[in-house]
């Protein structure tokens, strides 16, 4: 990719840190309005939004007004955006069913792309984008932003120094997201001018994607409840499971799972010599209770996350450790107020201008699908009973 100077001209002599990456955004819904557009606007020394794509003309008009400076180009055609010479990086934050399709479009045109989680819900689609990446100048960066929080990276280092892990717990039980969004200060809007053909195409793609995962790959009955659980694991669950993999590795198996959703569900992972519990779901209490806690004999390390929809809330690390024979101390470390989305975009910038492969790439995301499979297979008996009842 040629260098892009801060004034938009080409040239290889400028420092890479003076480049302004031009971003095209596919998907102008809530996450774009609340998270991505404000964050990229704040990072104007690194990024400039030049193109927007959505099936809703109202959403395009609304989001275009949120971008300072020259008005971005707008389109309802994803390939038009991906092929534009005015776009260096494609940000894909539309419906899950289009993540891989539009990622492949971006790669076909040699563009780096940040794809919101989940990259995909089945192995077939992950393999498709991995293959497309091999023949492209561009790279895939998957948006599991919690893994770029400074406190999380510090916790990974702390856990790596432990002699032995005894136990770990991953929790993500949150209240209504609408409450956090309403307090974000971004004033997002919802629109309804979606073409009927687009609505039908999305429903068809969602169904096919879920059937491929559950029925063809996981060997799990395709029922309304198994579909909902797969979508939950791909949505909220990807954050937790991806971070769990980085801090304690991949589990050997799932020892048990109670997949009660809607509600709160729990999974027990078996590791080599220790268990890990994962609990997640939604309540009506407007609290964001998300953390990862790792236990050793003499030290307990915890990463504390708050809602990402209110900008600037810190991610912290708490360390509780033994002191002497009968004492202990607790330390809470907050090195920065920079939120995970900001840190993720700064890392994306460095990956693009320095040609580095991101740690949260397409191949890495395949491990998340492996965990979806393990969890859903562990709860398959519930879905078998549901399928049997439906057939009577």
TrEMBL record:
GO terms for biological process: NADPH regeneration. Residues 21-143 form the Gfo/Idh/MocA-like oxidoreductase N-terminal domain. GO terms for cellular component: cytoplasm. InterPro entries: Gfo/Idh/MocA-like_OxRdtase_N, NAD(P)-bd_dom_sf. GO terms for molecular function: nucleotide binding; oxidoreductase activity. This is NAD(P)-binding protein.
């Amino acid at each position: 990719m040629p260098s892009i100077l801060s004034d938009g001209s080409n040239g290889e002599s400028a420092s890479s840190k003076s480049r302004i990456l031009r971003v095209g955004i596919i998907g102008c819904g809530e996450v774009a309005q609340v998270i991505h557009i404000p964050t990229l606007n704040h990072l104007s020394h690194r990024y400039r939004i030049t193109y927007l794509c959505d099936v809703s003309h109202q959403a395009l008009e609304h989001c275009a007004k949120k971008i300072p400076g020259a008005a971005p180009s707008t389109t309802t055609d994803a390939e038009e955006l991906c092929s534009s010479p005015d776009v260096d990086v494609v940000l894909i934050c539309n419906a899950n069913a289009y993540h891989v399709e539009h990622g492949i479009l971006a790669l076909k045109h040699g563009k780096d792309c940040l794809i919101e989680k989940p990259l995909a819900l089945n192995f077939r689609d992950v393999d498709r984008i991995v293959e497309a990446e091999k023949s492209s100048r561009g790279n895939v960066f998957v948006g599991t932003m919690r893994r770029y929080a400074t406190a999380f990276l510090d916790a990974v280092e702390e856990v790596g120094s432990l002699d032995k892990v005894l136990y770990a717990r991953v929790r993500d039980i949150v209240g209504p997201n609408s409450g956090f969004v309403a307090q974000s200060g971004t004033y997002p809007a919802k629109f309804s001018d979606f073409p009927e053909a687009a609505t039908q195409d999305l429903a068809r793609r969602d169904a096919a994607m879920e059937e491929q995962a559950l029925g063809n790959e996981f060997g799990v009955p395709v029922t309304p409840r198994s579909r909902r659980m797969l979508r939950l694991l791909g949505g909220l669950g990807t954050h937790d499971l991806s971070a769990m993999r980085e801090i304690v590795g991949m589990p050997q198996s799932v020892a048990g799972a109670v997949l009660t959703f809607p509600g709160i569900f729990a999974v027990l992972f078996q590791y080599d010599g220790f268990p890990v519990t994962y609990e997640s779901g939604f309540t009506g209490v407007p609290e964001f209770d998300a953390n990862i806690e790792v236990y050793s004999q003499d030290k307990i390390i915890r990463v504390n996350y708050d809602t990402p929809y209110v900008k600037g809330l810190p991610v912290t690390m708490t360390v509780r450790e033994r002191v002497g024979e009968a004492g202990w101390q607790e330390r809470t470390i907050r090195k920065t107020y920079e939120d995970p989305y900001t840190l993720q975009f700064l890392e994306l910038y460095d990956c693009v201008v320095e040609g580095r492969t991101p740690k949260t790439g397409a191949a890495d995301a395949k491990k998340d699908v492996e965990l979806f499979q393990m969890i859903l297979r562990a709860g398959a008996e519930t879905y078998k009973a549901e399928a049997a009842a439906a057939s009577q």
